[in-house]
Amino acid sequence: MNPNLTENLSVIQAIQLILAPGVMISACGLLLLGINNKFTSVLNRIRTLTEEKRKIIFNAVERDFHPAENQRVESITRQVAGLLNRARLIRNSVFCYLCAVGLFVVTSLLIGADYFVPMLLLRYLILGMFLSGMVVVFVGVIFGVIDTMKGFSIVKFEVQVDD
């Protein structure tokens, strides 16, 4: 047992400490579930728009572009650029959440190691890993907020073009 503790921990208390970062792992899992759905939707929208653009261009090879077709191709090009930017933001958010899960798992392992091999340095490492995980989750949330704001501007542009 760790002699640095003011009171001896039982095995059950040690397991509870090890599982404490598990709450954050579950939270990251929920965040990942939601953001992955958004990521899939954005990627599918990019594929749909690029397919529409290819069809317009392919059909116009035999004749001149109609002004409405030209406007639609320009609109698609602009929307795809915005959606690619959103996809980057969402990818960054997913990456942050996955990194945070890794940091929380390492935190749990270090807590377990500290129970059996007490070292002061290990305590600082545990705290650093957990706080790093929290910071990375926060950065992922910031990417998600920026993506949400960009998503609205892309939809707003599409509505304005069609008017």
Protein model, in words:
The chain has helices spanning 11-60, 67-116, 120-162. It is an all-alpha fold. It has one domain. It is rod-shaped, with a radius of gyration of 24 Å. The termini are far apart.
Query: Over all CA atoms, what is the radius of gyration?
Result: 24 Å
Characterize the largest beta sheet: strand count, sense, and whether it forms a barrel.
none
Count every beta strand, where a strand is a DSSP E run of 2 or more residues.
0
Number of domains: 1
What is the averaged pLDDT score? 86
Beta-strand portion reads under 5%
Detail the poorly predicted runs. none
Distance between the termini: 72 Å
What structural class results from the helix and strand content?
Answer: mainly alpha
In which range does the helix fraction lie? Answer: over 70%
SSE succession: HHH
Secondary structure tally, helices:
3
Name the overall outline.
rod-shaped
Give a quick set of tags describing it.
single chain; 163 residues; mainly alpha
Fold topology:
Blueprint: H1 11-60, H2 67-116, H3 120-162
Gist of the model:
88% of the residues lie in helices and 0% in strands. It has 3 helices and no strands. The protein has helices at residues 11-60, 67-116, 120-162.
